[in-house]
Design a protein that fits this description.
By secondary structure, the chain is α+β, with helices and mostly antiparallel strands. Helix content is about 20%, strand content about 30%. It has 17 helices and 43 strands. The strands form 12 sheets. Strands 2-1-3-9-6-7 form a 6-stranded antiparallel beta sheet, covered by helices on one side. Strands 26-25-24-23-22-29 form a 6-stranded parallel beta sheet. Strands 15-14-17-18 form a 4-stranded antiparallel beta sheet, with no helix packed on it. A hairpin with a 2-residue loop joins strand 17 and strand 18. Helix 6 packs parallel to helix 9 and helix 14 packs parallel to helix 15.
Length: about 800
Amino acid sequence: MNLTTDSGINWTVRASGGPVPDKYSPLLAAPIAATVPGEVHTDLLTAGVIPDPFDGANEGKLHWIGRTSWSYRTEFDWAPDGHAVQELVAEGLDTAATVTLNGTEIAKTWNQHRSYRFDVTALLVAERNELVIEFAGPADTADRLAEQLGLWPHTNLHPYNAIRKMASNFGWDWGPDVATVGVWKPIRIESWTGVRIDTVRPLAGLDRDHGVLDTKVALAWADGFTTDATITVEVGGTTTEMTVAAGTEEAGVSATIDHVDRWWPRGHGEQPLYDVAVAVKAGEQADDWTGRVGFRTITTDVAPDEHGGPFVLSVNGKPVFVRGANWIPDDAFVTRLDRSTYERSITDAVDADMNLLRVWGGGIYETDDFYDVCDELGILVWQDFLFACAAYSEDEPLRSEVEAEARQAVTRLSRHASLAVWNGNNENIWGYVEWGWRQPLAGRTWGEGYYFDLLPKIVAELDPRTPYSQGSPYSYDHFIHPNDERNGTMHVWDVWNRVDYSTYRDYKPRFVSEFGFQGPPAWSTLTSVVHDEPLDPYGEQMLVHQKAFEGNLKLERGLGDHLPLWKNIDDWHWTTQLNQARAVAYGVEHWRSLFPLNTGTIVWQLNDNWPVISWAAVDGHGHRKPLWFALKHAYADRLLTVQPRENGLVVAGHNDTDEAWSTSITVARRSTSAGGAVLAQETFALEVGPRSAVLNSLPESITKAGSETTEYIEVRGADGSAAYWYFVEDTSLRLAGDAYTASVAAVDGGYDVTVTATALAKDLALFPDRLDPAAKVDSCLITLSAGESHTFHVTGASAPNAVGVPVLRSANDLVA
């Protein structure tokens, strides 16, 4: 019996204690309607009690919600159904909760990341049953636990490491402080007799061309039930049975399927998935489970080599060059997410030629919808355990909660073909080594036992087919700094925080699992929540939507010599978006040119959880920022880029496909001025083998400029590939302000904007959302040499009469 709102069960919520401001007290004098699954913020918003927490400066005005206790209540009728056992199953309670049924307290919980099952057989009554779930204010609870258990070092304001709750819910340097409570996952009464399936772990692997499915079935038995049970597993047309004695807690059923089609990440093959049906029958009692698996093997290679230590992820024995992004919860209020929202956001990764998403440790174990979509679309999942940027006590009662949630998470997610890595934590090993934690810890535990003992043992026991990594970053050796570029995985954060993005070229990392640069969201997204008059980077509401420490100062400093300081708010928006895109692409292209020394990058970050100035490639309203388009280019299957080496410039070609790349390359040194005269030109054949890279040196006739401020290098492949090199930064480059013309034509579903260049037009970008927030554009950051044209296709909006600044932008209009 489902106890959710969409099943017709009515819930209410009321403030049961805490600092409710006087202005809200009359609105909360009586309980309000609640949605289950849901969160109190969205309930209050739906009831009209509070304004939108994302709008203006509302976030700070609503912090009282996270310090208030909330009581959820429902009544439901129940009638005996002949089963011997009735259990209340709560898949997710957020977070410090007291659960009472018909006046009897049945549990206290304080872990958002796990599910609960309570026997309520003796408590249910015919007709009206009352279920009350009291949630303590999460911000106050975290403070109280930190006082009781001791304060462990952490980032940001709240001691989120004292409670097993989504860390970023307490605010992050890209996210709002909206500490929620609520029944955030489904809740139900489950009735059964004799035996039921508790959990199923169908672990799919390969033995040459055969699929091997090792299915672990955990069973629960009613007291006194003594009938043996038959377990049946069906997959790929193969049915396997086994009989187990009554009381057996877990059974393993192995099946071999002839000639299965292998599951591959996108770019390496198809993603066939096989239905799995598990049934248990004991006399007249029966239960079943269904799911899907993909047959593949995944390994990581971190064995030392002549350069240090690699991080190589292989699927079905084939190394995969990782083109990925970090993933944060896709909405600050995660219960608003569903299958369609996950599909939309994961498609952002697919369309940018990504093949991996890293589920970051300050968020949540995502719903099955997320992993199902990744299975279907061929996106590998790097799954952090939920520890981020903090030290964590290994003492009770926290340790038991950590173990319980980890066991549940591994059990639930292990079946997914997309699951590629279990990762112990985000930056905590690095934090212990370098962030000054040892003195305040004074010898206390900090999480090492989780990352090096408990979690790897759980993975080895429950999901031995999936690799485990102790942390990110990590060098896979206790005696090497965890963020050493020569070994394992690296996070590069001196860029953005302290130094110019040209510093990326100083690094030769084996694998980069975090790096990034900030930029504002789309104009329509920003102005939907920021209403400062006049609009200014340092306006009150703008700063509410800039969470990074000294974020706006870093945006300004990050321009360096690359771009001039803005003259107005329109230029601020375009300049900082452009600089973000260039910075990240600069790093990706450099590191790809190092292949095979470097085996992948995971940019911070793909998505936002609200409208904010951040590192995201796609903003909180789903608009793809210029960064997204830069990533689409830099993450292309075949990348052409010009890079400096000790002996001069080279054209680097990285071919991340199974087919050889062969094309004719024309390189030209050209004038930036009208006409774009070709000053020197050479051709050569580019030959790049499958999954490999080459470097081709450029001749001095191309690389030696007569005038560095008025010349550039253009690289063109006969297959349409292109790359550019500039001898000076844009602040010194002579770019014409009248380098292009634009025309608009209405088409079905939108309009086309065709831009034709008469001189070098650099980084052309169209922002149709400035005319209509629903408008989307298909391309961005287009560079045209004199005589070339490009058509931007816009969907979801009516055609304007003409476009110009600030809708159509380029680097030219910033520096001309």
